[in-house]
Amino acid sequence: MRVRTVRWLAPVLVMAVAGFGVVVARSAGRTDAAAKGRVTARNVIFINGDGMGAAHREAARLFYAGLGGRLTMDSLPVSGQLTTSPRDPATAVTDSAAGASAWATGQRTYNGAISVDVHRNPLPTLGAQAKAAGKATGLVTTAQVTDASPAAFFANSVDRAAQDDIARQYLEVSKPDVILGGGEDWWLPAGQPGAYPDKPAADPEEGSRGTKGDLIARARADGYHYVSTAAQLTAARRGKLLGLFANEELFQQKPEGQGDVYDPPVSLATMTRTALGTLSAERNGFFLFVEEEAVDEFAHNNNGRRTLQAMGELEKAVTVARDYAASHPDTLVIVTGDHETGGLAVEDTATTDESGTGLSAEDGPFPIKGSPLKFNLDWTTGSHTAQSVPITALGPLADRFTGQHPNTYVHEVLAPVLTR
Questions:
Q1: Using one digit for the tens of pLDDT, what is the confidence trace for 181-192?
Q2: In the chain, which end has fewer C-beta atoms inside a 10 angstrom radius, N or C?
Q3: Residue 8 shares a structural domain with residue 101
């Protein structure tokens, strides 16, 4: 990218019952659920539609499901809202680094920070803690794998731009089992291209730029199977897996009609399915972070067509996660966004475009599936906004997300599951 008021207790009580050793995990106020033997969360799939607010979800619903339809992400049984404020002295509007750091650490911080506090001290992250607790961990994204949102769960940095050092931390510190996405440039020294050449025609500014040595070779030495194409991913054996499928993001986020392309070499759904196949082998459970970056990037350019396309691919990945949870009831699935991008509104085609003819001009009309009606997308900014974002969830502990909460509340819910 371009840049508590409510607290729950989760004690574990060990009870001996007439010849049986019964371990009952209960949250305060939920003893009835424990008594009924409700399944507890062992796996967590956390899905980030980067930049996705309520209007993005509604536009995608109309476009893909129609007036009476529902997206998979909106059909998850529990819904609520998250506020997104950072702790930044200059602004009340978050960036992705501060937003994801709030999820991963439970603390608000300044924009650009990767899981460090406002004094630049590193904070424990859920991804690293889950690994230390014996769970398998992974991340998949259509951004660089070292971009702000995934990085916040697996690294610490005072500056999100230090992506080569974030890659180094993946290998040396947090050690996620599965790493799939873009950003090969940050894993190789400047002037040493890998599977993807420097200065490609689609974007001549891209090229290898790391300062930490050949991290792909180091990953291989550490036991990762490295893949760079869809065919290699399909053929990859189970085990530690590193897949980098582009120099940078898996798309070209240019203004509409100026080389904007959303055609990832590997789909987000495929990467998610592959990651789940590997991580599910861990008997202690797993944590998987999934991100569709293109929602944010195309919304920054007020590119309605590509934003809808990215939302459709995110929806497919959510369906993969939902289907996995259907056969693994100990899996908690969460879908949300780190912030809203574009100040988006869904409007009738008969309304006047109040935003004029510049970057924030209306997009459309777009068809409503199964209807003769159409809608426009009206943008108010090319930046992030401070809007609250929807959160939907399925599985054990999903009911905790009912109502409105700060983004740090995600950590409050997930920490007892992932760190013990």
A1: 999 999 999 999
A2: C
A3: no
